[in-house]
Amino acid sequence: MSGLPPIVVSMGDPAGIGLEIAAKTVAARDPSLPRFVLIADADALARAAARCGASVAPHAIETLAQAQFGEALDVLHQPLARAENPGAPDTINAPAIIAAIETGVRLTLSGAARALVTLPIAKAPLMAAGFGFPGHTEFLAELCKDTPIVGARGPVMMLAAPGLRVALATIHAPLRSVTERLSVSAIADVGRVVAHALRRDFAIARPRIALVGLNPHAGEGGAIGREEIEIINPAAALLRAEGFDVGDAQPADTLFHAEARARYDAVIAMYHDQGLIPIKTLDFWGAVNVTLGLPIVRTSPDHGTGFDIAGRGLARTDSFCAALRHADAMAAARAHA
To answer: Which of 10, 48, 76, 88 is an S-S bond match for 100, by CB 3.0 to 4.6 Å?
Structure first.
């Protein structure tokens, strides 16, 4: 592993728990974790480490070539405009937060880093500063849009944990608008991205994909809604005609138990909570957010900024460590694809 480029980690919102979990992770000295470089304000990291009692100091660097991967945490210094106040996001620091993401993408696209892990951001203060994207996923897609990609282009949001991978046909859509956002072509596009990503990023030669029905009992033959008949199943048929192993819509209430999960490699849910409730119930602390269909590998902890516990030393590192491991494994799979 020592000869490979590192993973880079963007700092997220410094008023949240992101810097704390990065510091705690390094302080734990787990030799099985892949090495990473943090893109952040080095002084903010030192303050976060002190607040949560993590025995780690920042090693400020200007280029990845200067990283030492020793007892200190290598930090590509991205200065904040104002020192963070735990639990209170500050719009004045939005440019630094955004710049950290942009630097991470640039380094990963260039090959200087092998993957990007993003720590959580808060959308409201970024949007107040003029950030024009709903979240990380859409911003990353914009930053990568001019770079060629192998396979179908996303972005597609997927949550991954041991034993379950859930991709979303719609993401942060109000429930009342989900049906109007679903179409045969939209679901088929998600299916192609998921299938190609499972092959390239997860080394699954012939991925099996399940589709969740929108309605109770997957519409029960049209008696409880026709979206399965008119939208979801035609999308499945289109994907099968293209050579993908995709089944027709199945009832959500019977698709996530252990025996059912053994029959597919990933499932596409029609809306946010339909997919995220099962995976967070199955493995709340170990789930990881993965963006599929990008020219770079990107993962993220599957939790938010944690403003309510920021600065109190309570934040857990489980999902961040899982995000590092997923990024490492996906980058390795791409390298051997």
So the answer is: 10
Structural contact between residues 41 and 48, judged by C-beta atoms closer than 8 angstroms: no
Q: How far apart are CA 69 and CA 17, in angstroms?
A: 22
- pLDDT tens, 33-52? 999 999 999 999 999 999 99
Query: How much is the pLDDT for 172?
Result: 82
Asked whether the beta carbons of 105 and 144 are under 8 A apart, the reply is yes
Global pTM exceeds 0.90: yes
Dump pLDDT digits (tens) for 77-104. 999 999 999 999 999 999 999 999 999 9
Distance CA 167, CA 290 (A): 9
Residue with structure tokens 């990609």? Answer: 149
CA distance 264 to 326: 19
What is the rounded distance in angstroms from the CA atom of residue 140 to the CA atom of residue 106? Answer: 11
The first and second tokens of residue 284, run together, are 């709340």
- What is the number of other CB atoms lying within 10 angstroms of the CB of residue 281? 11
